Amino acid sequence: MGARLDAAAAGTANYVDERTSIGGFVKFFARKLFPDHWSFMLGEIALYSFVVLLLSGVFLTAFFVPSMTIVTYDGPLATMQGVEMSEAFASTLHMSFEVPGGLLMRQIHHWSALLFTAAIVTHMARVFFTGAFRKPRELNWLVGFTLMILSLAAGFSGYSLPDDVLSGNGLRIIEGVFRSIPIVGEYASYWVFGGEFPGEILIPRLFTMHILLVPGLILVLIALHLFLVFLHKHTQYPGGGRTHKNVVGLPLFPVYTAKAGGFFFVVFGIVALVAAVFTINPVWNYGPYDPSPVSAGTQPDWYILFVDGALRLMPGWLFDIIPMEWELWGYTLSLNILIPAVILPGLFFGFVALYPFIEAWATGDRGEKHVLDRPRNAPVRTGIGVATITFYVILVMEGSNDIIANLFHLSLNDLTYFFRIGIFVLPALAFWITRRLCFGLQRKDRELVLHGKETGRIVRHEHGEYQEVHEPLTDDERWILVSYEDIAPLEIEPEFNDRGVRRKGYRWDRFKQQLSRIYFEKRISPVTPEELAEAQHSHH
Hints:
Blueprint: H1 2-20, H2 23-30, E1 33-34, H3 41-61, E2 70-72, E3 84-86, H4 87-97, H5 102-130, H6 138-160, H7 165-180, H8 185-193, H9 202-232, E4 250-251, H10 252-277, H11 283-286, H12 302-313, E5 317-318, E6 322-323, E7 325-328, E8 331-334, H13 335-363, H14 379-399, H15 401-408, H16 412-451, E9 453-460, E10 466-471, H17 475-482, H18 506-520, H19 529-539
Antiparallel strand pairs: 1-4, 2-3, 5-6, 7-8, 9-10
Helix pairs in contact: 3-5, 3-10, 5-6, 5-10, 6-9, 6-13, 7-8, 12-13, 12-14, 14-16
Catalytic activity: a quinol + 2 Fe(III)-[cytochrome c](out) = a quinone + 2 Fe(II)-[cytochrome c](out) + 2 H(+)(out)
Cofactor: heme
Domain Cytochrome b/b6 C-terminal region profile: 239-440
């Protein structure tokens, strides 16, 4: 029986290969090497959670009614009996309490959405801190960044579909953000909501966006992202035998395929377990959307919470002197909404998207990079990353200031004043501390390379001197600690030429030189072979 199956499989494969010439592609694809490191699983978690999103979303689509038509609830939930609500909210209750497994699928969908965005953000952080965005992967960084933005759009549009009080208040905030944009904001709001908020067409539009437009774009970008990974070959961490011209790892088939397949079920199982144990978004506790009630102690999902925090952080008056809302030529300019909800996110996300190009331009380092940096060997970049995370965390905490104040019995106003100062001070402090720590770790690496590891064993020499015995590093351990580039700050031509004429473009070159010095003027150079040989000779 087994021989017949093998013969049938071989015959089928031969038939397909003779008509499609796919054998060469499969052979190339299966032999593709992937480095074996736990941090590379972050991208896999994002991919697998998106697959879970699609599977659970297909189930939910069969029962959800994307309509804002008002109906009277007559279902099994006693607290909602006789309450007027939209068909969208009523179908959500029907799905949760009357469809077998409906509530579990809703929660799997929501938890996997949170995991999808969290995995993308964490994966991008890994890429940032290790320098995996450098040439030739700048375009792939932009693809990943766009995937992150699309995950936010998918999460917010799905979060708003049940048409409950929380999601309705979130949409009301978005409507206010639209209207804060000068001149075009009001027209944009009318176009999105189909008239005055909330209108009657928003839920159907969000539904189309959530199940068709955004997932389609995400699928296209995932395919493009994986194609670019194959095209450029995978990055790898420094180690023995690893260079910018090779890849040390495991083949895609059968080793990596088996591991990845098993990992998918691990991710699916953990999401299902969390969804079965922890309740999320119980819309029946909030009720259908009504503009009159606004609950205290409520926040959007974590990936949108920073916008809420920025809105809470922005004062209505600057130093109690300058108002943040102006009436100009018949238009109301609401800077207290425009700055935190439009300008600040635009600058934040713009900086994240363009950082690979900013660093390449500032440092002048444009060579191809396939071996990753250890974060300690790029102190300025690591400091910038930690400062950015600190900035984001402050906004998230301010978005939860009422919960923090209630939990720790603090003054809400004092918290807000603290975060208003901290948003400027703490990221700068985080940058300085991180940079100092990186330099300290680099100095420790030099000490290890030159003198070896401390063993804790003390010996006494014949002449009476006591000395600790150090164990020399292995070649692989030493390679990791010394294999990084020693890049000097950018050198430029003098300001004046031999004839005393000021050189054109000097000021621009001087600006680039200052940026280069920020990155490289203070640096710890790796141990050279000469230094290592001298240290080993002195030990002997």
